[in-house]
Specification:
Blueprint lengths: L1 H55 L3 E3 L4 E4 L5 E10 L6 E2 L6 E5 L4 E2 L3 E6 L6 H8 L5 E7 L6 E2 L4 E7 L11 E7 L6 E6 L9 E3 L2
Length: 208
């Protein structure tokens, strides 16, 4: 009888040990799942924050002074804005299907007047720039300098956005113009400038 009791106690002890091992294995598996879910959630949160930050920053930034040129009637006809890639941003496609340029004037709103980008060679002079672009009234184009033969603005390149206002939409003394350049990624680049007083005919004006 004593031997039988000892044998049953040994069996019960082995069963308890097995159950304890099973519980430990299940707990370890559950912990692994919980930890993995935590890492996954953290990674997705990080990606979401990075995406939101990228969309809130502009892909382009001004790289110099915005300049205007007046016409014969002493009103601003051309706007020239130099731009480059924003710090830390990748290359930006400036093709006609990837960019939207809108202009807001005191008496008119010009929606999506962008006609694409062209590669510009030679010196950055007004005659070269104007001749390369060949703009129509109420239209805008980018001229890319120091670049290759594509329409993509890269870190070593500079572009000039040129807008030609029509005779029916001149910008006169003390009037304000708002230019919005929206690319495929990132927030829009917004440029707001006010024309100074005392504009002369066929002259260049620094808009700051």
């Amino acid at each position: 009888m004593k031997n039988m009791v000892k044998s049953r106690r040994g069996i019960v002890g082995i069963e308890a040990a097995i159950m304890l091992i099973v519980f430990l294995i299940i707990a370890a598996a559950l912990s692994y799942v919980v930890i993995n879910m935590g890492f996954y959630t953290t990674q997705k949160t990080k990606e979401t924050m990075q995406t939101g930050l990228g969309e809130s920053l502009t892909a382009l930034q001004l790289d110099g002074v915005v300049t205007a040129k007046t016409s014969d009637d002493k009103a601003i006809q051309y706007i020239v804005a130099p731009v480059k890639l924003s710090a830390g941003r990748g290359a930006v496609d400036l093709g006609s299907s990837s960019v939207v340029v809108s202009v807001y004037l005191p008496g008119a709103t010009l929606i999506n007047i962008y006609e694409g980008a062209v590669k510009a060679d030679g010196n950055v002079t007004w005659d070269d720039l104007n001749g390369t672009l060949g703009l129509d009234d109420n239209k805008a184009k980018f001229a890319i300098y120091n670049g290759d033969d594509d329409h993509v603005l890269e870190s070593n390149e500079k572009a000039f956005l040129v807008i030609k206002l029509g005779a029916d939409n001149p910008l006169k003394d003390y009037e304000t113009i708002k230019i919005e350049v929206r690319t495929a990624k990132g927030a829009a680049l917004t440029v707001v400038r006010t024309a100074p007083g005392g504009l002369s005919e066929n002259s260049f004006v620094d808009l700051g």
